[in-house]
């Protein structure tokens, strides 16, 4: 008797494309494959991007984003969703409207700027992220620059990370993962739901090729949640994965290279 093939957990990324392959949809799908889940995508924007920065960005029409989402969710279904670059207020609001009915954990990476400092979210969209998207998040994963954009809290030390988490939780996500990679010393992140607190520390690797860290971490968290892990367990596993990917990051082009999503297989 034939044994039916096992269907892996399904994770959907709603994000922009990185033509250089280090971040965005490309990083998300590589991460999902490396972590044993089936990755699917809703493209929100196309960027012309390489190791030197973002040379151009074009958002997709709202109807195209909605059609991609319905096509995947209505037929295939999802066990987790991750959002990344959403570019504009209309796209943020459309994605929030779609996610309001999804019966799966949602990881929101509130992408504001690229690794090179290029803006990836219109200033006019910040209020939509705060009011429409963050309340739907199981986990929100802002870095310190994004914390500043969203809350006005400037973080200079670990005490500031607590204040940042409190401010982010005020917008409604169940958990906030404040990424402290821009601080000096060890790479430290704070995960909290306002009641319990988890500090995640890893040694800082002397490697400037870190393009795609935020996308990779959020996708790894979503992958863990799709496998049935609780939030703290999924975040710890994601932190371990991205730490290894950073250590193995490699040079491409003349600028900042990507983390190595396949580091466990090389």
List its salient traits:
9 strands, 266 residues, nine-stranded mixed β-sheet, single chain, alpha/beta
Write the layout of secondary structure elements.
Blueprint lengths: L9 E9 L5 H11 L3 E13 L2 E7 L2 H14 L4 E4 L5 H11 L6 E3 L17 H8 L5 E2 L3 H8 L6 H12 L5 E5 L7 E6 L4 E6 L10 H14 L4 H17 L19
Parallel strand pairs: 1-2, 1-4, 4-5, 5-6, 6-7
Antiparallel strand pairs: 2-3, 7-8, 8-9
What does this structure look like?
By secondary structure, the protein is of the alpha/beta class. Helices cover 36% and strands 21% of the residues. It has 8 helices and 9 strands. Strands 3-2-1-4-5-6-7-8-9 form a 9-stranded mixed beta sheet, with helices on both faces. A hairpin with a 2-residue loop joins strand 2 (38-50) and strand 3. Helix 1 (24-34) crosses helix 7, helix 3 packs parallel to helix 4 (126-133) and helix 7 (213-226) packs antiparallel against helix 8 (231-247). The longest helix is centred in the last third of the chain and has 17 residues, at 231-247. It starts with 9 loop residues before the first strand and ends in a 19-residue tail after the last helix. 51% of the residues are buried. The mean pLDDT is 93.
Average pLDDT score:
93
Give the end-to-end Cα distance, rounded to a whole number of Å. 37 Å
Could you say which structural class the secondary elements and strand pairing correspond to?
A: alpha/beta
Helices and strands, in order, run as: EHEEHEHEHEHHEEEHH
Shape: globular
Kindly state the percentage of residues in helix.
25-40%
Number of strands: 9
* Uncertain residue segments: none
Strand content: 15-25%
For the largest beta-sheet, the strand count, sense and barrel status come to: 9 strands, mixed
